[in-house]
Write a structure and sequence with these properties.
alpha+beta, two-stranded antiparallel sheet, 4 helices, about 20% helix, about 25% strand, globular
């Protein structure tokens, strides 16, 4: 069977030089970036099927802001005007780490805990993400996509539900006590392999 997909991968550092920025999500001015323990990255994949393509980039930051998404998309379109990039085929997501600087949004509410907007953080996140997607688009080759899944048993504490009261209000789930909140989550691990 011939491969029907073309797949490309890219990875770029999005580690801003530490200048004492407040780490995103803490809301605590003592949690500042003073050094780099581990670099953070944007990892991208471009998948092409026939004439259609899409890009998925995962950033090792707390979350993707609208400002970040808008600027990444603008630069992709500007760098490749006939490349077919649009809001419909560029997906950005984040690992939700609190070990990366904040201040990368134009939304005042989210900049308050970071004590403002950090232009160099924003630029590092944007340029690294664009480079990762561009690298992925430039490295496409024929390949296959496979899917697998497995279950973690109820006895395996892989995580816990931070909002057990909200979980218990769902009509289609089993209710759990606060002590058993590790059971109140989807225990299926899903994986795509490219």
């Amino acid at each position: 069977m011939a491969d029907v997909f073309k797949i490309g991968l890219g990875k770029q550092s999005i580690t801003p030089p530490p200048r004492g920025e407040i780490m995103m999500g803490w809301g605590d001015s003592s949690h500042r970036a003073l050094d780099v323990g581990l670099p953070i990255h944007a990892r991208a994949m471009v998948l092409q099927v026939g004439g259609a393509k899409f890009a998925l980039a995962c950033l090792e930051i707390c979350f993707v802001t609208q400002a970040l998404r808008d600027e990444v998309l603008r630069r992709l379109v500007d760098s490749e005007p006939s490349g077919g990039w649009s809001e419909e085929n560029v997906i950005l997501c984040a690992t939700h780490t609190h070990c990366a600087p904040g201040g990368h949004t134009h939304d005042v509410l989210y900049n308050l805990p970071s004590y403002g907007f950090y232009p160099h953080v924003f630029e590092t996140y944007v340029s690294g993400t664009v480079a990762a997607i561009t690298d992925a688009a430039g490295s496409v080759r024929e390949g296959r996509v496979r899917y697998a899944e497995g279950e973690f048993g109820a006895e395996t504490n892989v995580a816990f539900n931070r909002s057990i009261q909200a979980w218990n209000q769902n009509p289609d789930v089993q209710a759990y006590s606060y002590e058993d909140r590790a059971k109140a989550l989807d225990r299926t691990m899903r994986m795509f392999r490219f």
